[in-house]
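Q: Convert this sequence to structure tokens.
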Amino acid sequence: MLERPRILLTNDDGARAPGLAVLERIAARLSDDVWVVAPETDQSGTSHSISLHQPLRVLPEGDRRYTVRGTPSDCVLLAMGHLMADHPPDLILSGVNCGANISDSVAYSGTVGAAMTGLLMDIPAIALSQAFFDRHEICWETAETFAEPVIRTLLDSGYRGDVCFNVNFPARPVDQVAGLAFARPAKGSISGVVIEPRNDTREEPYYWLGFQRSPERVQAPDSDVEALRRGRIAVSPLRFDRGIDDSWSGLAAAMGDAVAAAQRQQRS
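A:
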């Protein structure tokens, strides 16, 4: 790890979220060159989305601290392309999210999306989330205690290239954490969609969207759900490269034949 890395902090819970304050304290123990570029409002569920149809408004809030009317990925790109363009960050930390980002949630998470945007821009990036059972009793101390050694170890390992890391801390106090496990996101915890229709004051309809969640359906022993269930810190390496193995060769050949047949039909 560099002696004085330049660190960019962001999140998806918004610039006033308690988890961001936790992350600032964590980052202060890693470097004195810390920048905060965070969304003005809660951007949960925005994944990797960026704002293409409206301008980004930036509100300076002090030395190396900015609030952005945009998504977490907007924040990362704006920081790298403008606010920190003279010296891009050596590390991006996203979080600490209020609630776990595991299983199916990884695909929707703005916290993870910011880290994946860093990966796309070739910057080491780590998403951090604190699981809870009761929103009024969140074990922030668990994330604050273990994040620094986890981050240092990841960086000291010399990892670069094709992965970022998604780190989830269990909903347990510090003395009850049962270690750490590398784990994978496992499909299955989303069991349905909830659409709640309402009417506004002019009797025009609008809708709230949500998920029915059933994490108990995920039983894979190597899953992030199982790691948290056992009280472990769950670490998942994430990558853009999904890979294509030989099992698709038959379908690829059949689809190729269908394309060739369509061309022959067009010419006849």
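The domain at 6-187+220-267 is CATH 3.40.1210.10 (Stationary-phase Survival Protein Sure Homolog; Chain: A,).
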